[in-house]
Amino acid sequence: MIVYDLSCDKAHRFEGWFSSADDFDSQNQDEQIACPVCGSVNISRQLSAPHFSTGATPSEPPQSNNTAVAGVSLEQMRRKFLEFVLNNSEDVGRSFPEEARKIHYEEEPRRAIRGEASRDEVQELREEGVEIFPVPELPEPPDQVH
Ligand SMILES: [Zn+2]
Q1: For a tag site, which of 27, 45, 88, 135 has the least CB within 10 Å?
Q2: Sheet with strand 43-45: strands edge to edge
């Protein structure tokens, strides 16, 4: 037995079972096949697409992907980060803890600074809620060619 996807001239679709392709042809010519919806005998075969999904099954929600980076080494990223820090912060040297506090308590306008702080000073600043980030040893500032 073979199954054909059939449709009438009004585009109603239904299935028909036949013993062979010739069986379908002869039944169709004799107008023995009628649309179950409208009774039309003007029937044609559709291309069967047994694995085609009609979308009745809801599609899976898109997976959320984590952003990933390839082709850049950690060392390159570290250098870029440090360059950014160097180019976008003011070097206040040993007065870093003092300056960081002033900015935190809004005694001075907010700005990016860098400088030195001892382990104890870093600890104190953090306990006061001052946002600071430890930076691995800074490379020499890139040569200014301009
Ligand atoms: Zn029909």
Answers
A1: 88
A2: 13-18, 2-8, 43-45
